[in-house]
């Protein structure tokens, strides 16, 4: 037990690693995750629109892209992009692997976000698309102004959950050899643990990850409950009216039954 506490909960070492984790690692992790999410949203929306279209030459490439990047391990994609595009990245960004890490995580997240967008779009009733076309709107105009905005409102919790996954996957970018000022939470925790021959800095890095993900998870659940409660107030009032109508109809039926029984006894 003492060996476990000394190796994982060395409080002076744990507390001493917090400044670097919070000032450098937390900032870089959030920047990496936010920009990767933005890339994933843009690419994912394009892929989702291609996947729900009725044109085969649009559907097939989108499905292949989604299947490939959902099926490959995240570490392999990061290595393929970081090493395969290294000459291009060197000519554009210089000796800075941070943009390639954003591209790699963005491609990974875009495959999952595309499926999230597709499910949101397909959850909207097909009758609305028919109504838009009856009003003279084109297919893409209907998708842009009517279908997609409704689908996005329904998938906001799923997008937030995907952001949490990107925050955790950002720990894999250490494969690309980030600069000292670009180290993320996991890289700082790992380097400090190796130098100190103790795993307490990695425990501190995990605590900072929890500081990001746990409040965000509870916020997502709260927003989801609030959205489900207040999204369709008309539907709720209509349901109450239906219940009252059913109750009054049941009372009338019981009254008629009792009256017929009384007449039979007379």
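Q: What amino acid sequence fits the structure above?
A:
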């Amino acid at each position: 037990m003492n060996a476990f506490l000394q190796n994982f909960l060395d409080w002076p070492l744990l507390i001493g690693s917090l400044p670097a984790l919070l000032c450098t690692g937390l900032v870089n992790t959030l920047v990496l995750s936010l920009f990767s999410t933005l890339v994933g949203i843009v690419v994912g929306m394009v892929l989702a629109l291609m996947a729900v279209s009725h044109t085969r030459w649009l559907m097939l490439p989108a499905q292949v892209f989604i299947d490939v990047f959902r099926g490959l391990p995240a570490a392999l994609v990061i290595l393929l992009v970081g090493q395969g595009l290294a000459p291009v990245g060197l000519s554009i960004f210089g000796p800075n692997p941070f943009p390639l890490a954003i591209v790699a995580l963005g491609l990974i997240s875009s495959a999952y976000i595309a499926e999230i967008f597709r499910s949101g779009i397909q959850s909207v009733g097909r009758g609305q698309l028919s109504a838009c076309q009856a009003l003279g709107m084109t297919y893409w105009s209907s998708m842009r102004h009517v279908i997609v905005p409704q689908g996005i409102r329904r998938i906001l919790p799923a997008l937030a959950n995907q952001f949490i996954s990107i925050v955790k996957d950002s720990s894999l970018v250490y494969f690309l050899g980030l600069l000292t000022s670009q180290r993320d939470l996991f890289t700082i925790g790992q380097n400090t643990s190796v130098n100190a021959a103790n795993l307490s800095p990695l425990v501190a890095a995990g605590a900072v990850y929890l500081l990001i993900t746990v409040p965000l998870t509870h916020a997502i659940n709260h927003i989801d409950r609030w959205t489900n409660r207040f999204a369709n107030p008309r539907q709720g009032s209509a349901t109450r009216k239906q219940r009252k109508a059913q109750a009054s109809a049941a009372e009338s039926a019981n009254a008629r039954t009792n009256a017929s029984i009384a007449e039979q006894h007379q």
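Q: And what stands out in the fold?
A: Residues 2-231 form a domain with the MetI-like fold fold (CATH 1.10.3720.10).
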